[in-house]
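Listing S7. Sequence submitted for prediction.
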Amino acid sequence: MDKLAAFYSVTIDNIVHLKKYIPEVVIMEDKTSAEQLRLIAQLNEKDKSTIMNIIETMLTKQKFQDFFQQNIVQ
């Protein structure tokens, strides 16, 4: 265990009590936009693609809503 601690530059206590250092949930609202993008970039390609599809769908929906709202009001 000493070698493992030295390799990762952590204390043995950190390794033994690792669970208390690992967050159970990452809350995106607590992060800056840059941090959110960094976290997304760490995902595997399938998950990144899923997130990008969701964002594209939401942006397209918003554009349609804006378009129809502008044309109905005029």
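Caption to Listing S7: primary sequence and predicted structure tokens for the chain studied. Residues 2-73 form one domain. The chain is about 70% helix and 0% strand.
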